[in-house]
Design goal:
By secondary structure, this protein is mainly α. The chain is built from 4 helices and 2 strands, in the order H-E-H-H-H-E.
Length: 93
């Protein structure tokens, strides 16, 4: 009985964690520095600001892999966050 209860709890935690990760995805073309730093692992305020500066200078990101062009962001950081990164075009009002 205890093993089944523990298994159910672990499964619930795993599923809850998966749902939370999906909810924390972030569009790197529209997010603020605060939103980027909060949603992405290994991205603090300075790197988040660098992402914004890069997109302002070069235009919207077309693919998550382009983030490695931002100073201070390497392949390891990109790979850790790949499932959280959205690159949707910003809407124009």
């Amino acid at each position: 009985m205890i093993k089944k209860t523990i298994a159910v709890l672990l499964l619930t935690l795993a599923l809850t964690g998966f749902a939370s990760a999906e909810e924390m995805s972030v569009n790197v073309n529209t997010a603020t520095a605060e939103q980027l730093a909060e949603a992405l692992t290994g991205i603090g305020e300075a790197k988040a600001e660098a992402i914004i500066e890069y997109r302002e200078e070069h235009g919207p990101f077309q693919h998550p892999d382009e983030l490695v062009n931002v100073r201070g962001i390497g392949l390891a950081t990109l790979d850790r966050n790949r499932d959280l990164i959205l690159v949707e075009e910003p809407t124009r009002d």
